[in-house]
Automatic annotation (TrEMBL), chain A:
Its cofactor is Zn(2+). It comes from the Bacteria. This is Protease HtpX homolog. NCBIfam families: PRK04897.1. CDD domains: M48B_Htpx_like.
TrEMBL record, chain B:
Its main location: membrane. SUPFAM superfamilies: LemA-like (SSF140478). Keywords: Membrane, Transmembrane, Transmembrane helix. It is a single-pass membrane protein. This is LemA family protein.
Length: 299, 190
């Protein structure tokens, strides 16, 4: 079952990249259309910006994501013996190399994993998690994070995050330009724009407004299902559903995080910002905790 | 023409045979590797126990008889002949149980719990215990895939010729996840 999941995730990474790639190019075309009256220049520009962004992000994703979330790396076992030992255990039983270990100074209990593949991965936990959870609960959480690493969820999320960030950058760039200089085409056109041009312009502006939204909806949808899977895989490693259940209860019953980066919220085991959501909400990064606990209790 | 076909068929058979053989060798190595992972942890625990005894000894009333039993079991474990995995794990399981009960009663000794050396040792030993349990899980799953190959057709033919035998699973103690039962009677009467 695990191998099927890994294969499916690798395929999905391909779909996500293709879908996001098209979105980026569409944004580029819209940008070009609005500002230079040439959609092809925009497509080329967007492709270059995204390529540079992707290379920078993926070659250094762990460090970038950790610094965005204020994670401090620990390199010695005695800096946090229990955490270190549990990560060692889960890496051993999950048969992945030992990930790098980071601690985030935040009183709210939470954790996430990131990286490009199991050989280049990292796990981060908050100080609140270490203080409030007992050993069994902590083990459940670490099992969940190591499962994300094993399933290649981390690669999927890194790429989705990089692409969403690239789209955000392009749209930001567009809106700044719009306020500062206005669209060049409108200045030069002497108000002679044909109906076709006006429609094109409207489509472009709408696209620029909707693109970041589309990017985050796709990112959230990807993340939600992976949480159930990682919960189940964690129990497969620890053989102790109760530990993860009470860990999730403690994570749910806490104040929002201060140190978390909003773009990375999909990575965390529990929603770091504790937004009140309705069931089936498109923007929810996480399935409701009660639902996850109910599934674990059936095991 | 017929010659060429014959040569190709023989060649394919040889390749098939060699790949099955190599697969069996590989999985047998995995079983040995996962056993040595257990072995490393057992040795580590044996090294930690003298420290535990010397730290806890200072607390006069702390479970003298249990400590003694820990030491006995440790010595018994080192005396088990190297190849006997089943017996090694039997003694090891008993030692795990005794250590667990020792830690459970530590809750009643605030002085001992305040001793950082003791709490560090407790973490180290708990870590070792968990690693033993997890490497046993890994060992059993590699044994399962070895046994499956030794039994199933056609790899069983190759296994028979080269004497690949099935391995026994390491039994998981029934009380593994249960809460340990510790009696406090002898403490109260003293």
């Amino acid at each position: 079952m695990l191998y099927e999941q890994i294969a499916m995730n690798k395929r999905r990474t391909g779909y996500v990249m293709a879908g996001f790639g098209l979105l980026v190019l569409a944004v580029g075309a819209a940008l070009g259309d609005v500002f230079w009256a040439s959609w092809s220049a925009g497509v080329v520009g967007a492709a270059i910006v995204t390529a540079v962004y992707m290379v920078l992000m993926i070659s250094n994703s762990t460090n970038v994501i950790m610094s965005m979330n204020h994670g401090q790396e620990i390199t010695q076992e005695d800096q946090a013996p229990q955490l270190w030992h549990l990560i060692e255990d889960m890496a051993m039983v999950g048969q992945v190399p030992m990930p790098r270990v980071f601690i985030i100074n935040d009183a709210s209990p939470n954790a996430f994993a990131t990286g490009n593949d199991p050989a280049h991965s990292a796990v981060a936990v908050t100080t609140g998690l270490l203080e409030r959870l007992n050993r069994e609960e902590l083990e459940g959480v670490i099992g969940h994070e190591v499962s994300h690493i094993r399933n290649y969820d981390i690669r999927l999320q890194t790429i989705a995050l990089a692409l969403a960030a690239a789209i955000g950058f392009l749209v930001n760039f567009a809106s700044n330009w719009f306020w500062w200089g206005g669209a060049r085409r409108r200045d030069d056109d002497d108000d002679q724009g044909s109906a076709g041009n006006v429609i094109g312009l409207v489509i472009s502006v709408v696209l620029l407004i909707l693109a970041p939204l589309a990017a985050s909806i796709a990112q959230m949808a990807l993340s939600r299902n992976r949480e159930y899977l990682a919960d189940a895989a964690s129990v497969e490693l620890t053989r102790n559903p109760q530990g993860l259940i009470s860990a999730l209860e403690k994570i749910d019953d806490s104040q929002p995080m201060q140190a978390a980066d909003p773009n990375s919220s999909a990575l965390y085991i529990g929603d770091p910002f504790k937004k009140k959501r309705k069931l089936g909400d498109l923007f929810a990064t996480h399935p409701p905790i009660a639902d996850r606990i109910a599934r674990l209790e059936k095991m | 023409m017929a010659w060429i076909i014959a040569i190709v068929i023989v060649g394919l058979l040889v390749i098939w045979y060699v790949s099955i053989y190599n697969g069996l060798v590989q999985i047998r190595t995995h079983v040995q590797e996962s056993w040595s992972q257990i072995d490393v942890q057992l040795k580590r625990r044996n090294d930690l126990i003298p420290n535990l005894v010397s730290t806890a000894k200072g607390y006069a009333t702390y479970e003298k008889s249990t400590l003694q039993k820990v030491v006995e079991l440790r010595n018994q474990l080192t005396a088990v002949p190297a190849g006997d995995r089943q017996q090694t794990m039997e003694v090891s399981n008993e030692l795990s149980g005794t250590l667990r009960s020792l830690f459970a009663v530590a809750e009643n000794y605030p002085d001992l719990k305040a001793n950082t050396q003791f709490t560090n040792l407790m973490e180290e030993l708990t870590n070792t215990e968990n690693k033993i349990a997890y490497s046993r899980q890994l060992y059993n799953s590699t044994v399962a895939s070895l046994n499956m190959r030794v039994q199933s057709f056609p790899s069983n033919l190759v296994a028979n010729i080269h004497h690949f035998a099935m391995e026994k699973y390491l039994e998981v103690p029934a009380e593994e996840k249960a809460t340990p039962k510790v009696s406090f009677d002898d403490l109260n009467t003293k």
